[in-house]
UniProtKB/TrEMBL annotation:
Keywords: Chaperone, Fimbrium biogenesis, Immunoglobulin domain, Periplasm, Signal. Pfam families: PapD_C (PF02753), PapD_N (PF00345). The keyword Signal applies. One of its GO terms (biological process) is cell wall organization. Residues 24-143 form the Pili assembly chaperone N-terminal domain. This is P pilus assembly chaperone PapD. Residues 164-219 form the Pili assembly chaperone C-terminal domain.
Amino acid sequence: MNTWLKTLPAALMLVCGVAQASGGVVVGGTRLIYDGGKKESSLSVNNSDKLPYLIQSWAETQNGGAEKAPFIVTPPLFRLEAGQQNVLRIVRTGGNLPEDRESLYWLNIKSIPSAPKTEDGANTLQIAVKTRIKLIYRPKGLKGSPGEVTSKLTWSQSGNKLTVTNPTPFYMNFREIKVGGREIKDATFVAPQGQATFNVPNGASGQVTWKLINDYGGVGPEHKNGA
């Protein structure tokens, strides 16, 4: 532990990642669906590097404010040896969460490499990588999946703005949205029983098509409005 403590104040850069922390630490998923009918969920962390890493993990609210997320991650801090794997356990700790729709939080995994030894004792630059993935709480009573009900989405265009309305209880995470065959660059997601608005390329109009990211991080089939 002393190696990290000596190195961090001197030279530490933080880089945000999506599903993989560079340097050989890989998080086992691009999102985590927490089944409300179970006591906990889990996520693997693998170190394929030749050096050990310090792994720190925590959950936070969607807005990342001072309010605490109703989940704990264990172990919150541990050393992951070279070539080894560990499993993070995510446990709900309470919270008055809706039971008729999904709730979105963020799961953060920060990987801090150990400092390599140098013969002359010179300072080295260490890069800490923070991976942030969606933590989606799915209540016990919800049946099915986003892909099964995505046809219920409705779309409306006004000028260069495209609005999607989601009457379902699921988060719809978009991999791709196109208008008249032209791709929207800022497509993200739409909350359950909510709306989201995206920018349309200049002059684009016509049929809306979209693809979702499924529960396992894969890309689903193309859907069309009115189909």
